[in-house]
Amino acid sequence: MRRLLARLRRLYADYRALRWALWALGAVASVGGTIVGALAANAWRRMGPVLTDSPEYASDAKASPPLASIHWSLPHVDLGPFVPLLIALAVVLAVRVLLRWPMARPDNPWERDPRRLFTDADRRWIKELTGNRCEHRWMFGLFRCRRRGAYMDGHGQMDHHYPHTKGGATVRTNLVWLCDRHNNRKSDKVPTRLETWMLYRARLKYLPARWRAYARIDATTDETEEDDDDGQERHEPQARGTARGRTIRRRDGGGVGRRPVPARDRAPERPPQEP
């Protein structure tokens, strides 16, 4: 049933997009036809003096009255009123393109990230960075969802900004914190470049300075990371320091290495146990 409803929603979205496209094409065709007709009438009107009979070339042949007077019967069309309409149409088409321009597919070494879910540490991290408030933006990024605090504690959801099913990496640079309503509305749709840019500009204002590198959405990973036998979860290699003793495979096949473990992240040494 859910799949059927999802398909119906997608079909309705496609229908709306097709309707808008047909409306825009019809508007362009009607305005273009009017302009072409007006230009043709104006050109024919200017040809009037040329078509007038000259005495030196007079003959007994008579021109057809309708053809001889056609340049007098065509009205003059002023193109001035159409200029604002054309500008408004161009603005509408530009906004439509911005609202429909999707992000490019990230260049990752796999079709889907082997690790799909974020960790509890990621949840605590994103809640702290966002002030436990939904990151959804609307009205061209001017306003932000007002759900926060206790509501987000029970209904807040982590999600990939670029969908995991479409090739987005499970990294913190691709993590967003949304309320259940806006996350369900987002679903697995590929975000537009305008939405991504609005989120980036908004994050520059509320992210702490030391986490400002995470403001820009990046669904790619430069390295293929594999977990060690100790089952440690992996994180992205770009933004935050070092991983915890994790095996790294470079995408260009240039060898395998192990990142150093910072002193603050090392586990305390246990005293030897007596036999």
Descriptive keywords:
three-stranded antiparallel beta sheet, HNH endonuclease, two-stranded antiparallel sheet, 7 strands, transmembrane helix, 275 residues, transmembrane, mainly alpha, nuclease, 9 helices, 41% helix, membrane
* Major sheet details: 3 strands, antiparallel
The parts where pLDDT drops under 50 for at least 5 residues are: 225-267
Compute the number of strand runs.
7
Q: Share of helix among residues?
A: 40-55%
Shape: elongated
Ends apart, CA distance between termini: 62 Å
Summarize the helices and strands and which ones pair or pack.
Layout: H1 2-46, H2 48-51, H3 65-68, H4 70-73, H5 82-100, H6 120-130, E1 137-138, E2 143-144, H7 150-155, E3 156-160, E4 175-179, H8 180-186, H9 193-206, E5 223-226, E6 247-250, E7 256-258
Antiparallel strand pairs: 1-2, 3-4, 5-6, 6-7
Helix pairs in contact: 1-5
Protein name: HNH endonuclease
Transmembrane segments: 20-44, 82-99
Organism: Bifidobacterium adolescentis
